[in-house]
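Margin note from the TA: students keep mixing up input and output lines. Inputs are the sequences; the output is the structure of the whole complex. Example:
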Amino acid sequence: MGFTITEKILARAAGLPSVRAGDDVKAKPDFVLSYDFPGYTDVVFKQMKEDFGIEKVPEPERFGIFIDHMVPAATPQEEELHIGTRKWCAENDVALFERKGIGHQVSAEVGFATPGAFVVHFDGHVSQLGTFGTLAIGIRRNILEAFVRERVSLRVPQTTRVDFTGALGRGVMARDVFHHIVRILGPASCRFQVLELGGPGLASLSTEGLQTVTGLAMFTGAVTAIVNPDPERLAYALPRARKKLEPVSSDPDAVFAARHTIDLSALTPVVVVPPSPANTRDLGEFEGLEVQAGYLGSCASGRLEDLRAAAKVLAGRQVKPGFALHIVPTSQQIMADAAREGLIETLVAAGAFVSSPSCDYCFGRIATMTAKQRAVSTGTLNVKGRMGSPDSEIYLCNAATVAASAIEGRIADPRRYL
Amino acid sequence: MLPKNLRGRVAFIFEEVDFDVDQIIGVKNIKIQDVAELAKVAMQAYDPDFAKKVKPGDILVGNVNFGYGHPHYPPMRAMRHLGIAGLIAESFSPGYWRGEVSMGFPQVPCPGILKLVERWDEVEVDWASETVRNLAKGTSLPFEPIAQADRDMIAAGGLVPYLKSQPAA
């Protein structure tokens, strides 16, 4: 009986010859990541000293801190939080990535997405490092354990395996793949498990697209998602890797809690209607619904393929007057690449408001909506109040749909513009 | 070490699947820090007299995938302030589960709980036998064993005391 990629990674991290799903283990994370956020990092930094008497983390090279929320700061309190974070990183010799982009993307760019590594963060969207065969789990406040102890306590998760076949059609993107998974498997389908992706269709999905799919894993109930890394993902991740580790994959006879196959060629664009990420619907059902705002960005979307799709839709066209289209590339690297390709020029010419990378659009800290406003968005979430007033609404969709809807001022099928 | 057994009335049953706990206080109140203020706004959409009816030791019951969405901490802080001692659900969403267990809040997954209890029944959560008992009706159900670290964290009263009980190396 073989092992899953998750069991292999956790066995190594736990220092055991093998582990099985269901085992309670203490595993040493290869990397411990966090972005600064009130109630999380400030509290952890304080508890480290005051409750555990730890002045400095041992092995600082295992840690990475990101300043990506509240960027740029809008209040003195926010800047004070950032000052505290910079000071802690300097005192602890820990790498700080500030204003480089959304941390989950930057993590991959700077090599924390080491194939075969075990990574913890407090935020679950870190699951997107799974694209590169990295087991990255968001453990909320339990992140404290990783700052004050060498190992973290966890139960080895079971795995639900999804195999892809075929390739995506025109106007269908990775967002549609993920929300289709939630639709057919259900929002509780992978509770406490790992969502593992593989199959012959995997190679047809871009690395950026897989970052999208894995980054949203929590909405299937999964604790993370992971890809059996293929040559394309390894070619990206291995030269950047921060640690020398052997990439691993699931054995052909590994034990899965469930197995599903999805034919990518059968998918169509979808929309996830408020107020829950569980509400996947066909885009066609909601076409024509008036929308006043659009957001293209976030740790889930906002990468080059998203910007390219939007630029293709918007080239030579105009955003409807009065419609607020915010486009926020996920990282500085992506923004620079997009500028070099001429995408930024196309988007700006069409009337989009393009900003530097920040998490702040996704949770309504800026570009805040008021009651009765409605947005199309590639943000992570559509719960009440996520982008402003609890009486505003968010329709999640792919980047091309955001762009098409921005032209019409109502939810629109991008395939008419591609 | 086992957590202390819970014994109390079922103060409310959240029948909605994939229940988003932020609704307990309402999203517009999510930034309130003061727990007494939070307790005042809690449950207004479900039972405006909840605060008057609930007593210390009472328990909440939830449906499948309880805590789905983007759970914040204030709703359950408010509930604990009102005296709620624990929660039994058909099953939990992992993000919510982890967040509240790290607060030391006793919770157990118990498939079938919605059929086992009615509101205001007296129930007991017995950790040694991993059983939920309906004392009002004389019925019982096993609950699913939870991870050892989660059980220890609940027994210790939360993340910090749990970690202090763990060896440093």
